[in-house]
Task: inverse folding
């Protein structure tokens, strides 16, 4: 059985999220949460919350109170780019310089070992 959780419009670039996501992709959920909890990046907190949401979705689907979340595995974990907010900041000699503020969409798919 599989469960999926998505976090959309994250105010961080997809490249920075992928850097942290590559550490936990394909691991067991317990190991992944332990690694993410002690990782100092901002993206680790976002990924951890999304994994916990996927665990809650799985428990809701199964309706089993005795299900152990430690036995779940991360089947898929990927980041897609979201819309880019374009802003302008004052630059020298009366010019304006463009700022790109990227957003991301994170998707986590968990599966049990059955």
Result:
């Amino acid at each position: 059985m599989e469960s999926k959780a998505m976090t959309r419009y994250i105010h961080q670039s997809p490249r920075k999220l992928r850097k942290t996501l590559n550490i936990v992709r394909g691991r067991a959920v317990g190991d992944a949460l332990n690694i993410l909890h002690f990782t100092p990046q901002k993206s680790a907190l976002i990924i951890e919350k999304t994994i916990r949401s996927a665990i809650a979705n799985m428990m809701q689907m199964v309706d089993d109170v005795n299900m152990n979340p430690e036995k779940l595995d991360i089947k898929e974990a990927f980041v897609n780019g979201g819309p880019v907010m374009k802003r302008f900041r004052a630059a020298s000699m009366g010019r304006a310089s463009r700022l790109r503020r990227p957003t991301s969409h994170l998707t986590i798919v968990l599966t049990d070992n059955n």
Summary: The domain at 2-112 is CATH 3.90.470.10 (Ribosomal Protein L22; Chain A). The mean pLDDT is 93. The radius of gyration is 17 Å.
